[in-house]
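Students often ask why we bother encoding 3D structure as a string. The short answer is that it lets us treat folding as translation between two languages. Here is a chain of 317 residues written in the first language.
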Amino acid sequence: MSATRWTLVRLLGGAAIVAFLVRQVGAGPFVDGIRLVDVRSLAAAAAIAVLTTACCAWRWRLVARGLGIALPMRAAMASYYRSQFLNTTLPGGVLGDVHRGVHHGRGVGDVGRALRAVAWERTAGQVVQLVLALVALLVVPSFAQPVMPYVAALLAAAALAVVLLPLALPRGGSSVWARALRTVGTDLRDGVISRRAWPGIVIASTVAVAGHVATFLIAAHTAGVAASPLQLLPLALLALVAMGVPTNIAGWGPREGVTAWAFGVAGLGAALGVTTAVVFGVMVMVATLPGAGVLLVGWFRQTRAVPAPSTGGAAHG
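And here it is in the second language, the structure alphabet:
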């Protein structure tokens, strides 16, 4: 499948989820989600986003350093804010990360390696988030707890297959597969699982997940959910995992669908789940607005750097 068709499929998938929810619960929960957002919840989300963005930027810096490319923390922070803003406003939910990698790569003269650093950073974060979600869903009582041992076993088998598959493929030679395997092995060894990288990656990812969960709990409270934080924790983690599904429109779609389903199964009501997800989405979008400022500053600097076109010295008679 071509990149264009895959992008179209992802967008249509996100739109289909939203359309299905509107048909099932009506437009009211979506409207309520926008209406209920207040200044306090937005301020809290913006404050938490400073911490989570700093953690993600540090994680990116650790991976990039392992891959041998420089990335100052200040530049990483600004670029990460910009990528989050683009991810929450552009279709697909990943264009900001692509822009982040390309921009960094052009700065260091190696776009390919910079894009790999972004890909590994995001993958490492998703893996840590998934592990945390599995542990929490196994320990915290919820509707999902009885099936989680089977889910954990299935995911463990899938992870083992991913680890063993490269061992079955030829590593030597100059084929595409051999070169790709060598690159993956080197990136993992130097950028992700090295002793200089993995402890920081785990810590940064854990703090970032905690910040996202806190934002979700604030969104649920703003939406009028009366459940305790412990009851909401599994639902929040499921929503965060759903946000990583690439079938979305600027982050919208799977998050709302999974939250509606989880709230419904938990006895809180699917409509309230949609409202909570919408409140959360609006809070996250507003929290990424500093990224718009980074974009404007970059555009202004580029405009100032471009020399004015010469008018030429025409002779006057």
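Translate back mentally: Residues 312-317 have pLDDT under 50 and may be disordered. Keep this in mind for the problem set.
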